[in-house]
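notes to self, project folder thing:

trying the whole complex as one job this time. last attempt i did each chain seperately and stitching them together was a nightmare. two parts in total, labels are on each line so i dont mix them up again. if this works i'll redo the older ones the same way
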Amino acid sequence: MTDQTETHTHPGQEAAGPSHRYDAQMADAIETRWQSVWAEQGTYRVPNPGEPGFDASKPKFYCLDMFPYPSGAGLHVGHPEGYTATDIICRYKRAKGFNVLHPMGWDAFGLPAEQYAIQTGVHPAVTTRKAIDNFRRQLQRFGFCYDWSREFATIDEDYYRWTQWIWLRIYHSWYDRRQDKARPIEVLISMLESGEARVTSSGDIAQQGEESHDHAQPWDRIDTERRKSIIDNARLAYLAEQTVNWCPKLGTVLANEEVIDGRSERGGHPVLRWPLKQWMFRITSYADRLLRGLDDVDWPHSTKTMQREWIGRSEGAYIDFPAGRRRIRVFTTRPDTVFGATYMVLAPEHPLVDELMPEKYGDTVPRSWVAQGFDGAAELRDSTVSPMGVIGAYRAYVAGRSDLERTTDDKVKSGVFTGAYAINPVNDERIPIFIADYVLMGYGTGAIMAVPGQDQRDWDFAETFGLPILRTVQPTEGFDGKAFTGEGHAINSGFLDGLEVEPAKTKIIAWLQEHKHGKRAITYKLRDWLFSRQRYWGEPFPVVHCEGETHHGVGFDALPVVLPELDDYTPIEGAEPRSMLDNAPEWVTTSAGDAHVEGLPAGAPVRRETNTMPGWAGSCWYYLRYCAPGCSSRFVDKAAEEYWMGEGGVDLYIGGAEHAVLHLLYARFWHMVLHDLGEVSSSEPFRKLFHQGLILSHAFQRKDKSLVPMDEVEERGEGTYIETATGEPVAQIIAKMSKSLKNVVNPDDIIEEFGADTFRLYEMYMGPLEASAPWNTRDTIGLYRFLQRAWRLVIDEEAGTLTLRDAPDDGTEKLLHRTIAKVGEDIEQLSFNTAIAAMIEFVNAASKAGGLSSDQLDRFARVLAPFAPHLAEELWSRLGHPPSIVDAPWPAFDDAMLTDDEVELPVQILGKVRAKITVPADADQKAVESLALQNERIAALLEGKTVRKVIIVPGRLVNIVAN
RNA sequence: GCCGGAGUGGCGGAAUUGGCAGACGCGACGGAUUCAAAAUCCGUUUCCCGCAAGGGAGUGAGGGUUCGAGUCCCUCCUCCGGCACCA
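result (full assembly):
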């Protein structure tokens, strides 16, 4: 890229040379001309069922790109990589007789737009619209075959009205565990009224057939306020006090998926834990379905694995350990090891800790138990501080540590003794209860039974604290490790002794259930989805609050709840969480009548919810809106949705792997709820998913691994670079494109220099679509030359006229058939780099053979069209066809043309090629063998040797084993 | 640490899935054309030995299976991505 600036003479911009050469000006003229013809003729407009021009006899193909977030920086070269791939597929599918839906739009709400607005002082609505216009212009310049009549942005009132509508539908739903699906909340209410579902003393809802230890309370004896709270707690969108990820710098809370190593995914700012009342989605109800659904979709293995791990299903058991008057419930995947539970650990925040700890430690408590593994632990061991003091000190220590410190720093496990004991229900042993931060409140029950003999973490803790270790699984012969986590038979385990792990689990679970000490259980790592943000630039929640704690959904006919104009949306750094929309008091204050709230007097004053939805909201259902973006009566027209989303949803979805557990999990959740409510036809939204690789760039690295911006480096001869300021050598490495490294390539520049067709070909030729590769502007010339040669093959560069031969050349004809077959196959497999290589070979060979006939060009143009649509359209038109080539069918090929009459076979001796023989394609093995052995060179080399064996692979090779 | 994925010329990458390693493109070198350059065209281009014919080595390292391994198996190294005390 350093040499880019030196290239004053762009190959295409030179005026010299023949006047009808395919150069940058001509590429520009051809491309812009056909783009306007396509726009005028509506070439890429795709009718829906029932509309004029719709052909119901064709199969459908819905091909989706991840819609871009229109940033002020404009299109990155990474965007058109995936977009070109889908463009090729769509053009090919259309030529193969499919009705192809290929839409584009804008993911326009979100944090970056708001931050950009804060920086520039211009309202995000203004900057975002401008960015959208720029993105659209850039995408259109690539000649992508999007049906632009379906374009929309998530910030359009007409769109986010339905985002709010879907949110309300989820709000008005609950999860019916017996039917394993979401149902309207009214169904739950009538079930409660009829007694089909009951409220337990703990406030949970037990459906008929579900066991409950509690006594149910009759619904009609519960007061109205409590009834509402019970109903509200059952909703799939619910308000809950949560310890949230609060990012003071961004001025908002974040979802778990948006926090990486204690920092915000966007910006890398510190994230704190903060208790806050927030809107949540009960995505955990869908954990199992989100998991099972992955089995039926054609997605990259790695992405499925990531989602599976994120959902994190574990099978095991709950076991209740009596402790004083209470019972401590633990979750374990190894109930078979319960006889080896020599102590228990609760998470530091566990609510039972305060109830259990005694006023002072017993006299027999070893001092080593009191505290270990943190600053001040030694002093606590030597003091006479009460359990309460010790626990308080430990909790303070834990609270001051980030997740990152907690998981990376610890060499020794930290924790303190609560002074309390529990009883192991299987053997009535009295075991001490500790608190330690290696046990997480957010997983399982926040409490564990510690089995040091079979768990390395427990082993480490037991060693540090001097706790007993008991093996309950016989380690394999010669095992010299610490905790044994492998297979083996039970020992020291009473009635389980002798059983292997699996049967022991089965037996102990049966025993626990029989004696009411526990039961089979499944837990998930997946947490409910935190959906509130305190930012301005997002969809307002269609909810109002009245006196006290109660909230009400806005009436469906009062949508959209329009985002108010706001002048100041700068986050107040360091302050506690506060919503930006609190700055719009006139908007916040409204009446029940105004918000069409049912069940309240019209004049009742209510306050609007001032949190907004996160950036993910709009992308959770945009693929549905594309089916019928103009539909005003519904979020998507039913018939259009059934047609385009039928047979498993979107047929091909291409986008980056960075959304593996964010957008791709969230969208599946929304889709499943909508499916349950009868609003969409498929159970999964995206049948086939594919991730394109990253387009990387070069960067320079100092000896200390720090990076140097591109413009501060000079090249000193082949492959050696120095930093201009210091004269120190720097190493060229491959890195992501970034503004700070000044190694970003702007697509506009490349198009100006070579044209869009060259750009498209280059990106597809860089390597396999799924692989990441560094951008090399230098290499683009190869694809430009290919187009020039293709042009020169049939156009006289002096006269500018089509020059075709009358009689086709046999070799060229044969190769054309092979090229058609190869390119078609490769497109189906998304192997565009090899398809392009095949076309280059064809053009090179045809040039040598003396050109193409009219009929051959006709077919070749159609093969080229998906890749270089503008040049192909130009050639098509010069052949006398009216536009557009996209309506021309994919050319046929003849199988007979794919095989040769004669083949050249390598003849190997002991695996080394020593000669080549030419044999008829249908020659039998004996004939091939004798031809090989008769070959002069082979015969000479075999002189004095014994032929042991002759291996003949028909059509491939001959290998002679001789010694 | 665990789970994925990948290591092939100077570079990007091919290789019909166990059958001629390096297709195609870039770059480089040589030649033609040109006053000259650009562009274009022709040729060479994995490395080593050799004037050549030819020979030898070679797909991250080592071992194995096989007539035959870039491809399959085992051990190890490096890079990229994900997860990370999940009981």
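what i see at first glance: The longest strand of chain A covers residues 237-247.
need to look closer tmrw
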